Amino acid sequence: MAYPIPGRTLTIHEFDILVGEGPAGTVENAAAVVPNHVFEWLQEQCLAKTEGKGARWARLAQRGGRLVVQVTNYVGVIRTPGGLQIEVLPKVGRAGGVDENWARRLLIRMLSCLGPFRHIRTARAELAATRMSLLEVFVGEFLHAVSAVVKRGLRGAYVTRQGNLPFLRGKLMMSDHLRYNLVGADAFFTEHDDFSTDRPENRLIHAALNEVIAQSVSLENQRRARELRFVFSDVPPTGDVIRDIRKLQPDRSMIHYGDALAWAELILTGFSPLTGAGSRSAASLLFPMESLFEAYVAKHLERAIDPALRLKVHPATHYLVEHEAEQWFRLEPDLVVRKDGRNIMVLDTKWKLLNVIETMRKERYNLSQGDFYQLHAYGHTYLKGEGDLVLVYPKTDVFRRPLKPFMFPNAQNLRLWVLPFCLDTETLLCPANQPDQASFPMILRVHRDAASISGAR
User: φ, ψ for residue 46 (rounded to 5)?
Assistant: First the structure.
């Protein structure tokens, strides 16, 4: 059980249990003991959930007669008011017996599949993840992007200014000049264009650098941020983040600002929509693993799919029932494969660790009956009762190969497959087609071996 040092990062995994400092006696399977003020803050987040504004990433529970906090399926970094950063990594890292760096690198690759994080330079970020926390990795990415802007020079713009100056500059505003200088003739009221770097892009970056300096615990990131902030000393930090973001306009001369501005916006808006509740709030960088896994599979499957096919994400074109000319309960599968304008396959990703060893057969390998009902509904709406349904789970040491297809008794032409997705090779492992078995459609462009079909990265 880990005892974190204040100001440092505590690393745990999904669904781990945290306990506060207390009397002798430990809670079985607890991942770490946190300071009491941190534990109280975590409780506050969980209790606020009952009011609809608290943490979705943690819940209260009891273990061995003690109150504990269990993190849920959200991964990333929880920043507590006391300065402790709790880093939550994917559970496959713990289940696979691999080190934390592997799980952290995997999380970075998954995040790069999300739209707001598409500008992550994964190779550099994965290298940095071997020596610093996830949050500091992203701070480092932001600082690298700002360094690229500084090397090319801050962009400025001409701004029209008016003022009473001791010398003539630009155009003399005669009516204002007579009003202000009728008695004293030692000044000129003028209007002139002034070249200034005080523009929304630079104000946003300056404010983001201030935020990094205030929040980062990495000495290296602190030093780099202070050096870069000096370059922006003539630019005031933004006083209204949303207003300046809305002022941003596409400009070919500002293309090199793209990555820095994307990071600045994430930093200034709290990285993600999940923030602390109550009087002691703290912004967090947290993401649901189901969404990350879905984006990861979709991105790499789209690259690997046969060119004659089309992959659609969240088509949401069918409903479960109709009632008085209204459609209720929209059916929205994760992925649909189309050919010649018709659906031929429906795939749904599930971030769950299956165990398909024979001793787990009575437990149905941890498969969910609800998931099968869901896919059954997709099959009758999107495939009209004929075709292939796929449940995609992460590949692990106890789920290495596809399962034989599941058949629906009243829909003989509708089959459900359970396939592993290899997180390392970014590959969907498809079943080898045998003469005595139902054939799996050849949907991917490269047939690598007898047990898998994979696309090029």
Answer: -70, -45
Reduced to 3 states (helix: H, G, I; strand: E, B; else coil), residue 297 is helix
> Comparing C-alpha atoms, which of 197, 15, 5, 161 is closest to residue 95?
15
Query: Are residues 228 and 316 located together in one domain of the fold?
Result: no
Helix (H, G, I), strand (E, B) or coil at 233: coil
Query: Quick check: is 1 in a domain?
Result: no
Residue 260 lies in a domain: yes
Cβ within 8 Å of residue 369, ≥6 positions away: none
CA angle 64, 68, 71 (to 5 degrees): 130
Residues 317 and 243 in one domain: no
HSE of 249, CA atoms in CB hemisphere, 13 A: 5
Q: Compute the distance between CA of residue 416 and CA of residue 398 in angstroms, rounded to an integer.
A: 20
79 with 49: CB under 8 angstroms?
Answer: no
Using alpha carbons, select from 376, 373, 368, 367 the residue that is nearest to residue 415: 376
Q: Tens-of-pLDDT digits for all 457 residues of the chain?
A: 554 444 577 888 899 999 888 764 466 777 788 888 888 888 888 887 655 555 678 888 888 778 889 988 888 888 787 778 888 888 886 655 566 778 888 888 888 887 666 666 656 655 555 556 777 888 888 898 899 999 988 887 766 677 777 777 777 777 777 677 767 677 877 777 666 778 888 999 999 999 888 878 788 889 999 999 999 988 889 888 888 888 888 777 788 888 888 888 878 876 543 344 343 444 567 888 998 999 999 999 998 888 888 998 888 778 787 777 777 888 889 999 998 888 899 999 999 999 888 777 778 888 999 999 999 999 989 988 888 999 999 998 889 999 989 988 877 788 999 999 999 888 999 887 665 566 888 887 754 433 444 433 3
30/16 Cα distance (integer angstroms):
7
Q: For strand 406-408 and strand 387-394, is the pairing parallel, antiparallel, or unpaired?
A: unpaired
* Total domains, the chain: 4
* CA distances (Å), origin 59, targets 5, 37, 46, 94, 336: 23, 17, 5, 20, 34
| HEC string for 379-410 | HHHHCCCCEEEEEEEECECCECCCCCCEEECC
Do the domain assignments include residue 73? yes
For residue 143, the enclosing domain spans: 134-155+199-268
Residue 259 is assigned to a structural domain of this protein: yes
Tell me how crowded residue 284 is: count the other CB atoms within 10 A of its CB. 25
The whole-angstrom separation of Cα 202 and Cα 232 is: 7
Residues in the chain: 457
